[in-house]
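Putative transposase
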Amino acid sequence: MKATYAAADIAQAMGISKRRVNEMANEGKWPFEKRQGRGGGRVYPYKGLPHDVREKIQAHLLSNPSAVPAVVEREFLPVVQDSRTDLLTNWQREVMTSRMVFVRHIERLEAGGLTRNTVIESLVSAAKSGNLREPLSLHLERAVVGGEDGKSGRKLSKATLYRWVGGYHAGGEIELAPAYAPKPKTFPAWGHDFLAIYQRPSKPSLADAHREFAAGWTGTGPCPNYHAVRRFVCSLSTLAREKGRKTGNAYLGLLPYVRRKTDELWPCDVYTMDGTTFDAEIQHPDHGQPFKPEITLVIDVATRRCVGVSVSLAESAMSTLDALRMACVGAGLPAMVYADRGSGYTNAIWSEMGTGMAARLGYELTHSRARCPQGKGLMERAGKSIWVPAAKRLFSCSHADMDRDAAKKVFKFSRDALKKTGRAALPTWQEFKEVLMAVVREYNARPHSALPKIRIEDGRMRRMSPDQAWADAVNKGWKPDHVTESQRAEMFMPSEKRKVRRGLVQFYGGSYFHKDLEELHGEIVDVRYDMWDVEKVYVYTLAGLRVCVAELDGHAQPYFPKARIDAARDRRQQGQLMRLEAKAQRIAPGAMLTLPEDDGVLVECGDILGRQTPEALTAQADGVIIDVSVQEQPAAEERRPLFQDGMHRYRWLMTHRERCTAQDEEWLANYARTDEYADMAERYEFDGIGYKGQAHVHAAQM
């Protein structure tokens, strides 16, 4: 409040004219002072004004807080103490803020010269009449609430305002916050018994769990009704409620996780690998039957780029090795390979000391935690961006998003075609590979949300694509470690240790020989092999020096020289012809045996040893014709392959059952009792090679 007031200020406060104020001043002989400065005039001291005039000035100031002059020096105002407001709830903080508005308003008017009692009385009066000005009117309802629901019915009073101002001066803002005592959560005595029924992996509904709980109720008093049980379950936290109903990965999805940063990585620092069964049926490349291939991907962690792809019939060491080969040859050698604990990565080909791929390529192989796919979230997400879109581009898609009725139609159509033509009406192996590689290229060229932003030509910002992130690293001076041309052929061949005996190494049922192995008799060597070529193996010392290329049955030679065998065959043929002619004479005396003019036909017990020209040889004697039927020489039998695993051996034996020996039949019988066969039984039955028991084995085979 000012010490002196001009006639214009008094006129505004009283709502009269300036002329009338001057007349009242002259009539009442109000004390005045000469106004200093330009213009001169009179100013009237506040203390010398009549009582009724002072009251009207105060009322004007209370109704117009903006008219209160600013106070520069406020040493007389109390110092607000530091208070812990971070422990308050949102409701307490809102009430405290609203009350603080009233306290600040009272302080400001006090600093302007009004008494605290005058200001408080004016606020109470304005609140009762509903004439409280903004912003006080906006905070009134929240400031006087007695509970969190805001329905207390309290009114603003002098005692309340005095308590707020006094509390603020004594303890700061925290004293303006209302007391809050949350309702204590009590755990009922029957809670554990009910949760034992409700928290099961089968996830019974609340109603079913309550019915079972009520049926077995043995406690004192009446059984809690459904609504009491529902209130109890709703009062539990999500973790407490879902414990037992969710286990393993599902429950881990509710817990906090650690996000791995990849900002400091360069390309090829870490490769992550994983495989999955493709969500679409295609034609088997061998027999045209419908099947779902296995896809293995290799992702560079730093750039999220897909650097390796492999497709196979099932996850195995060979399929994962092929994906790694593509990554190392096309992108570069990694420092670390991060994979799960599947059979394709936990085998001797990958981790054998000295001969495994990890030792030969010089990378560190590390595995994720078992049954914890969250640890490989980067790989899982990248895989969904590749193999799911690829499956959805084929009409034979069997993904969970596929319409069930449409999927059934495709299934029936493909099986009908299979019955009629022997091949399913499904995408071919080549079509599947083309679609997969097209999706991989699109993924590598598409902006990735985990990569840094760049400014494009039109000035907008967007994320880098994996290909751009790879190129950016190259531009910054990074260079990959490539595999040389001379190493590509043998570097990625799997290997095993074998002992040399008399120039031979026994490997997967075959004998491989080379003369250079003669000096290594009794020593252990490293045998590397190409899974697609069983005719030869590559022999290395344990120190890594190449010894030779040993060939299958390289030490075998004809039992006798070929010329000697041919001469013996000729003599045997002449003897057979003489016996045949003698037999014809006994049947029809005087009969003659006539041979064809083509000398290229040799007859031996009805078998053609040389080139076959006529369909039969005819012996004629006195009108009697003796037909000697000629049987076709059987084609050279297919060589038994080098079996990769049990499934490969089972499929080959079941499709070549006529060539099975007694040992093969015994192996089939034992294999049919294994867990692997039980897992694949339905697939084998569908392919028509289900095991039905031992077949008859000829004595010649035994």
